[in-house]
Design a protein that fits this description.
Layout lengths: L8 H89 L1 H12 L13 H6 L5 H4 L13 H9 L5 H5 L4 H19 L15
Length: 208
């Protein structure tokens, strides 16, 4: 071997070391890319669900509100009809068993007058100067506060939510349709750009 030539052992040793470095860096970069890919997929999917879920649940909630309001009005109507039926029942019983009630009805409907009975007419000035006893109206009964039909957790959640126009955003058109299209676009982006990756193939170095 000549003195000017370099031994080839150094190059051979440097090549395996470089190969080991590339093998060591390769799996790290691959696992990092897979993690970022998975994170972006789930971020877009969660955003799509967060936009799409109110578009589906808010109309159901609004319809439930309308049903509850209609039910409350029907309950009030039934209560008023029951009170009117009770008053009519009392009138029927009074007509059947109270002579004074029949007498008042005869006077009012048939304009009947007994013999020797005098009719006294009051002028407008006398009626205006008459004092009325309004003590029963001084302390009227206060109406009961409306009963809130929603459960406690719904009221608690409403305190934490911001004062946004939720009905206009997620119920009224065309905002609801636009948000649903946006959610579909986010979900499609998640599956098209960050869908399942192909299986990773590991290369083994063949010995020389």
């Amino acid at each position: 071997m000549d003195a000017g030539t370099c031994p080839p052992q150094d190059n051979n040793q440097a090549a395996p070391s470089a190969g080991r470095n590339s093998k060591a860096d390769g799996p790290t970069n691959g696992h990092g890319g897979v993690a970022q890919h998975c994170i972006m997929f789930w971020v877009l999917t969660v955003l799509a669900m967060a936009v799409f879920a109110p578009c589906v649940l808010a109309p159901i909630y609004a319809e439930t509100e309308q049903i509850m309001e209609t039910e409350r009005k029907l309950e009030q109507l039934v209560c008023d009809l029951n009170e009117q039926a009770n008053r009519n029942e009392e009138r029927i019983k009074a007509i059947q068993g109270d002579p004074q009630v029949n007498q008042r009805i005869i006077r009012r409907e048939l304009n009947y007058r007994f013999e020797g009975e005098q009719i006294i007419q009051w002028s407008a000035a006398e009626l205006a100067g008459t004092r009325l006893d309004l003590s029963m109206l001084e302390n009227p009964q206060e109406p009961l506060p409306p009963v809130n039909p929603y459960p406690a957790w719904v009221l608690k959640l409403g305190e934490w939510l911001p004062a946004w126009p939720w009905r206009k955003l997620f119920v009224d058109s065309p905002n609801r349709e636009l948000l649903a299209i946006m959610a579909a676009g986010l979900l499609a982006t998640a599956f098209l750009l960050y869908g399942p990756l192909p299986p990773m193939t590991t290369r083994t170095r063949q010995p020389c």
